[in-house]
Design a protein that fits this description.
The two termini are 18 Å apart. β3 and β4 form a beta hairpin. 27% of the residues lie in helices and 49% in strands. A 4-stranded antiparallel β-sheet has the order 1-2-4-3. By secondary structure, it is α+β, with helices and mostly antiparallel strands.
Amino acid sequence: MVGRESHAEEDMSESETITVREWDADAFQRRVLELEAEGYATRLDSYQILAEMNPETGEVIHLRSIEMRKLVTGTDRKDRDLRGST
């Protein structure tokens, strides 16, 4: 699961923030590594592991989440707009 949002910075650059959420630890690590390879930086202060229990089975499962941010320059925005992405 990935959520996206954009933020304007003081220097008028824009940053794209993605929240990665996964139940499986291996899938979480793979996704974070993929995004780091694309230029995203992890916000370590946002890392969370939330434990939840399945009420029917009593099994405890853990949701891992972290925010990742990528600075988007004017050139990056123009390229993204030309490709039709938002």
